[in-house]
């Protein structure tokens, strides 16, 4: 068989597979519609339907990745199924998701990675605005950054948890790649300033010191804002990501300029619904302790005794008094797990205040 005939046969096979894939996706979508009908038919009077189940979606993605035998990577397969689930969920309910804007930020990229592109994503000017939109039920969920692997905690997010009574429903980990971007009018040999968010400038500090040591670094509210500015300036550049570059039609002057190749940011999904256990969960809490010798030891001791892994501890000043602090703690496990529940009960006996911010599935990828 000639190469032409081989290609023709393969294309016919691909067409047949595409038709089968379409048929199966359509069948899945019809099942999603039936799920919505069943939920609506069995609602108690005054009860609101819950269409989006974080624990269910996390299980589906992990299950698919376990079944995957290639040649597509597990991450790529999960991305495809995320979009299928997003489109099917939109047949039941179009989710509204607030994120730290403007358009083109890494937070928007995290929101789309977690929920897929069939949600209605709404940019907010500040982290506190994202919290307020969720509290007011103007949106179903919010997405906010909480920590970066290079620069550490995002304090505005931690402080907002002290002020608002919301739950963490999920997390997203996003590999952050920074690029040096210019507009069509930029004179690349005359760049005198580089715009970016303060954290991004810090994450690219060594690269900037080596390549643009004498150029002014200007911190702006977001990387998307930086990208927008350089579009109309001839002597500036921006550090931003792929989404901002595409949105504002910028050119890559240098790619992946972050100082650490594993540079990642963790984002939290905030909402009002509690998430049941999945068997692979994390829990976030806030604890305030009495100001006495050994207070931190007494706080951590129950976790050690119950063999609970703590993945993060941050300290923030509270507004209840001078030199008083709250500890933000992330731990492995669900707050309903017996060992975690026992540890929290012991801590609550000694702590001034203990608040479970939420238990949620670990980031899938």
From TrEMBL:
Biological pathway: Amino-acid biosynthesis; L-phenylalanine biosynthesis; phenylpyruvate from prephenate: step 1/1; Metabolic intermediate biosynthesis; prephenate biosynthesis; prephenate from chorismate: step 1/1
State the name under which the record lists this protein. Bifunctional chorismate mutase/prephenate dehydratase
Concerning CDD domains, the annotation shows:
ACT_CM-PDT, PBP2_PDT_1
Q: Which GO terms of the molecular function aspect are on file? A: chorismate mutase activity; prephenate dehydratase activity
SUPFAM superfamilies listed in its UniProt record: ACT-like, Chorismate mutase II, Periplasmic binding protein-like II
Q: Which organism is it from?
A: Azomonas agilis
Site (Essential for prephenate dehydratase activity) residue list: 265
The UniProt catalytic activity note for this protein reads: prephenate + H(+) = 3-phenylpyruvate + CO2 + H2O; chorismate = prephenate
Task: Enumerate the spans annotated as ACT domain.
Answer: 284-361
What job does the chain carry out? Answer: Catalyzes the Claisen rearrangement of chorismate to prephenate and the decarboxylation/dehydration of prephenate to phenylpyruvate.
Main subcellular localisation: cytoplasm
């Amino acid at each position: 068989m000639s190469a032409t005939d081989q290609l023709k046969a393969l294309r016919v096979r691909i067409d047949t597979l595409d038709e089968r894939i379409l048929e199966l996706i359509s069948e899945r979508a019809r099942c999603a519609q039936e799920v919505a009908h069943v939920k609506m038919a069995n609602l108690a009077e005054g009860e609101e339907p819950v269409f989006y189940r974080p624990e269910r979606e996390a299980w589906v993605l992990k299950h698919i990745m376990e079944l995957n035998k290639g040649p597509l990577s597990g991450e790529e397969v999960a991305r495809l199924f995320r979009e299928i689930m997003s489109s099917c969920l939109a047949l039941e309910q179009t989710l509204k998701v607030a994120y730290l804007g403007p358009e083109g930020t890494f937070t928007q990229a995290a929101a789309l990675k977690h929920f897929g592109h069939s949600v209605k994503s709404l940019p907010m000017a500040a982290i506190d605005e994202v919290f307020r939109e969720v509290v007011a039920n103007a949106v179903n969920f919010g997405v906010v950054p909480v920590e970066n692997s290079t620069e550490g905690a995002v304090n505005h997010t931690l402080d907002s948890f002290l002020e608002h009574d919301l739950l963490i429903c999920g997390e997203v980990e996003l590999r952050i790649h920074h690029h040096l971007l210019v507009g069509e009018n930029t004179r690349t040999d005359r760049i005198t300033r580089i715009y970016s968010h303060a954290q991004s400038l810090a994450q690219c500090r060594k690269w900037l010191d080596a390549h643009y040591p004498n150029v002014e670094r200007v911190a702006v509210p977001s990387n998307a804002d930086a990208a927008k500015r350089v579009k109309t300036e001839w002597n500036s550049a921006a550090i931003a990501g792929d989404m901002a570059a595409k949105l504002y039609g910028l050119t890559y002057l240098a790619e992946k300029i972050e100082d650490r190749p594993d540079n990642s940011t963790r984002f939290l999904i905030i909402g009002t619904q509690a998430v049941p256990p999945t068997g692979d969960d994390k829990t976030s809490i806030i604890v305030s302790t009495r100001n006495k010798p050994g207070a931190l030891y007494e706080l951590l001791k129950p976790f050690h005794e119950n063999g609970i892994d703590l993945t993060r501890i941050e300290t923030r000043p509270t507004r209840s008094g001078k030199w008083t602090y709250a500890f933000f703690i992330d731990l492995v496990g669900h707050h309903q797990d017996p060992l975690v529940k026992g540890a929290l009960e012991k801590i609550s006996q000694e702590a001034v205040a203990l608040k479970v911010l939420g238990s949620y599935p670990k980031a899938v990828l």
